[in-house]
Amino acid sequence: MVKKTKVTTSSIAINAFFILFSLSFILPFLLIVSISLSSEDLVLKNGYSLIPKSMDFTAYKYIFANLKQMVDSYKITALTSALGTVLGVLVMSLMAYPLSRRDFLFRKQLTFYIFFTMLFSGGLIPTYILLTQHLKMGDSMWVYIFPSLVSAWYIIILRTFFQGLPTSLVESAKMDGASEIKVFYKIILPLSKPVIATIGLFVLLNRWNDWYTSLIYIRSKELYTLQFLLQRILRDAQFVKDMSREVPVGINITLINDSPVETMKFAMCIVAAGPMLLVFPFFQKYFTRGLTVGAVKG
Amino acid sequence: MQSTQNKLTNITATKIKKSKTALFAKGKANLELLILCLPAVLCFFIFNYLPMIGTIIAFKDYHYDLGILGSKWVGFENFKFFFTSQDAFRITRNTLGYGALFILASLITSVLVALLLFEIKKKIAIKFYQTTMILPFFISWVIVGFIAYSLLSPNTGVINQLLSLFNIAPIGWYSDPKYWPYILTIAHIWKGVGMNSVVYYAALMGIDHELFEAATLDGANRVQQTMAISVPTLIPLMTMLSILGLGNIFRGDFGLFYQLPRDIGALYSTTDVIDTYLYRGLRTGDNIGMTAAVGLFQSVVGLCTVVAANWVVKKINPENTLY
Questions:
Q1: Interfacial B residues in 51-80 facing A (CB < 8 Å)
Q2: What mean pLDDT is reported for chain A?
Q3: DSSP-derived 3-state class of residue A136
Q4: What is the pLDDT of residue A198?
Q5: The pLDDT of residue A3
């Protein structure tokens, strides 16, 4: 009896700890939502607060009055993320398949060729000079897609998965005279949906959250990714004001001069980052699986 | 006699023919497989190998208008210039210091969280805690920067408001460098602990339940069981991940060090790492050659530490090596 109560107290303690711990992850997000719904005057007077005194949608009204920059950034982020993910996963699995074949003549050399890129990199400056001075990719959409198209680590994970598929399938298909590319898309791909989904989601998440490429390579505002747009918004109050000044049709100019900059920053954060943040956690299982798959080497 | 000889030559001929077609088929298959590799091989060549050749910039006085080949060779001048500057010590110390601190901090927190999570029996509770802990994994450092700002902003931030409730004077978080080692470490843990603990938790789930049952029969309580069964199970994994982390110690997390301290000069003494230094070197463009030299220094030392870490892991347990 004594033992049983002891177990329950410790389990209450552990659960209490986790509830507090979980709050430390949830509350910061609620804080952003709350600030975005606060009134600018109260924020300037009393500071940010977790519970808004009253619901105030002014910040959102300002944002939706001029959505041009936001729409541009959504477009460029969605387009480059989708294109980059599809193309990247395709190119990477096309290489992972030959590397998974034990009878492939150049398997060893090519595996080292990609693996070495994980050990050593040219670094920021040579990459920057190559992309901007020689390949002329600076300030263009392509800089989002091609330089980060392939990653050695993902290819190794894909290869390891392909290696686990029964070789008899490939052999019998080859016996029937199927070409390698046919074997790849008729046999390998359909059997590899889980790992393709996992890698695809990792690539998509990284691309969706990319601000670094814009920071280094992009000058034109139309080409900003969402995350970089948010960085500019957070750092630069003038940028926020300019954004709301761009389409003055039907909007009172004097109103814009005292646009609610502080609350607008956070409202933009919600509009820009909110939707996908609600989507990704549903695929949590794929992401955690990716970690355990990644722990297995070939 | 003749016919037998004929037969023999015939057999060898078909044999040769057969092996030739086999060889041909093999060659064809290899060629096809090689073609499949081609797009990725090309990408790696252009975007990974060409920049490696480009590291010769580190030995040049690079000017954009002169180009790589046109710029003057200066030998090790760029390295000399960097290593005699005050920045060299600061950014190397910060990079290594934070690297070590982060490895230790995330090791302790993620193992602890995994062990505690393992004690919870209700599936739905586990699921809830895990899902909330993993949330930060899905956001970029920019959003973490927003959160940090809403907490730390000197006039409007939540923390200074809380301090004022206890009559403590507001703290200038963004002007005093002494707080940043704590802030950065907490942010690093906050963003990573959910995902990092998943690996340890998975390892705990793999333990044979009979071990615990036997321990219970022997009268061991949960703490004793944890120390005698769970922790020893995790130790190989802990060792491997830490050593591999040490291998990557020179490659800082640019997002953390750039988005949270917001590139504020007054905070550089505790927030400037090699990666932020490289970025500023690129942005100002004053001395590209020297910035490239710093980058090469980082890559070369990084290569050495990764290879060394992997060598150590191989000695301990050949199954956990990276390659």
A1: 51-55, 57, 62, 64, 67-68
A2: 87
A3: coil
A4: 92
A5: 47
Determine the Cα–Cα distance for residues A72 and B58; give it in Å rounded to an integer. Answer: 38
Would residue A280 be called left, alpha or beta, if left means φ above 0 and alpha means ψ between -120 and 50 degrees?
alpha
> Does the beta-carbon distance from A122 to B53 stay under 8 Å?
yes
Structure tokens at B317: 């347990």
Structural domain boundaries of chain A? 2-66+236-288, 68-218
User: The dihedral of CA A240, A243, A248, A250: what is its sign?
Assistant: negative
In chain A, the N- to C-terminal Cα span, in Å, equals: 51
Contacts of B83 (CB under 8 A, 6+ apart): none
The CA-to-CA distance between both ends of chain B, in Å, stands at 60
Fold of the domain built from segment(s) A68-218: MetI-like fold (1.10.3720)
ipTM: 0.89
Beta bridge partners of B72: B61
B17 or B189: which leads in pLDDT: B189
Determine the Cα–Cα distance for residues B239 and B48; give it in Å rounded to an integer: 30
- As a three-state string, the secondary structure of chain B is CHHHHHHHHHHHHHHHHHHHHHHHHHHHHHHHHHHHHHHHHHHHHHHHHHHHHHHHHHHEECCCCCHHHHCEECCCHHHHHHHCCHHHHHHHHHHHHHHHHHHHHHHHHHHHHHHHHHHCCCHHHHHHHHHHHHHHHHCCHHHHHHHHHHHHCCCCCHHHHHHHHCCCCCCCCCCCHHHHHHHHHHHHHHHHHHHHHHHHHHHHHCCCHHHHHHHHHCCCCHHHHHHHHHHHHHHHHHHHHHHHHHHCCCCCCHHHHHHCCCCCHHHHHHHCCHHHHHHHHHHHCCCHHHHHHHHHHHHHHHHHHHHHHHHHHHHHCHHHCCC
Give the integer Cα–Cα distance in Å for A216 and A129: 11
Alpha-carbon gap, residue B311 to B305, rounded angstroms: 10
The tens digit of pLDDT for each residue in B284-318 reads 988 999 999 999 999 999 999 988 888 888 888 76
- CA–CA separation, B57 and A129 (whole Å): 10
Q: Which one of A14, A119, A129 has the shortest CB-CB distance to B306?
A: A119
Closest CA to A292 of B203, B291, B126: B203
CA distance B264 to B266: 6
Rounded alpha-carbon distances, angstroms, from residue B201 to B130, B137, B194, B302:
10, 17, 10, 30
Tell me which chain B residues have a C-beta less than 8 angstroms from the C-beta of A101. Answer: 33
Q: Would you say residue A264 has pLDDT above 90?
A: no
User: How many CB atoms within 10 Å of residue A87?
Assistant: 16
CA A216 to chain centre: 17
Share of chain B above pLDDT 90, in %: 62
- Give how far B68 is from chain A: nearest CA, Å: 9
pTM, entire model: 0.89
Give residue-wise pLDDT tens across range B122-164: 899 999 999 999 999 999 999 999 999 999 988 888 999 999 8
Does residue A296 carry a pLDDT above 50?
A: no
Asked if B254 and A174 come within 8 Å (Cβ–Cβ), the reply is no
Q: Contact, B51 vs A123, CB < 8 A?
A: yes
